[in-house]
Design a protein that fits this description.
Helices cover 30% and strands 28% of the residues. By secondary structure, the protein is an alpha+beta fold. Strands 1-2-3-4 form a 4-stranded antiparallel β-sheet, covered by helices on one side.
Length: 155
């Protein structure tokens, strides 16, 4: 029994690891783009960094697929922005929940109340909310990277 469970967990972990995209796996995915770069740019891409002037494929190899792609016009030139996101966990210590988070018997009151003793003075186990936030962006005009930015959270 323990052997079957171990085998199943091993298979699941292999599937999870196979789904992860790394710089090396993206180089194997796009070898023509990587080989067309200069040795300096290849070293830059291999370290997961980018610079202005790189083609779109090189940025993909360095940073991977973006979570969002924005497009627009700036000074009469069409541009594209690749936005990369990460998960941020927020601890909610107050008792107000947004409309989508209210449920059950107390959903019509403005605050989540402890049923019999009034306000519950401690955090609930589900007072952690994970939200997707942007942390870096790459900008393109045509097929070339024209800029990039990292977003810092100073809180």
């Amino acid at each position: 029994m323990a052997g079957k469970i171990g085998f199943a967990l091993g298979c699941i972990s292999c599937l999870v690891l196979a789904a992860c995209s790394t710089v090396d796996s993206r180089i194997k995915e796009k070898p023509a783009v990587y080989s067309s770069l200069s040795p300096r740019d290849q070293a830059l891409i291999k370290s997961g960094m980018i610079r202005e002037g790189l083609p779109v494929g090189a940025v993909y190899i360095a940073w991977g697929a973006p979570a969002q792609i924005r497009s627009g016009s700036r000074n009469g030139h069409a541009y594209e922005a690749w936005v990369y996101t990460t998960l941020k966990t927020i601890v909610t210590t107050d008792y107000f929940y947004p409309e989508f988070y209210r449920f059950g018997l107390y959903r019509y009151s403005g605050y989540w109340r402890y049923p019999f003793l009034g306000s519950y003075p401690y955090g609930y186990a589900d007072d952690f909310i994970s939200i997707e936030v942007p942390y870096k962006t790459a900008f393109f005009e045509g097929n070339r990277c024209t800029g990039w930015e990292y977003i810092r959270d100073n809180r």
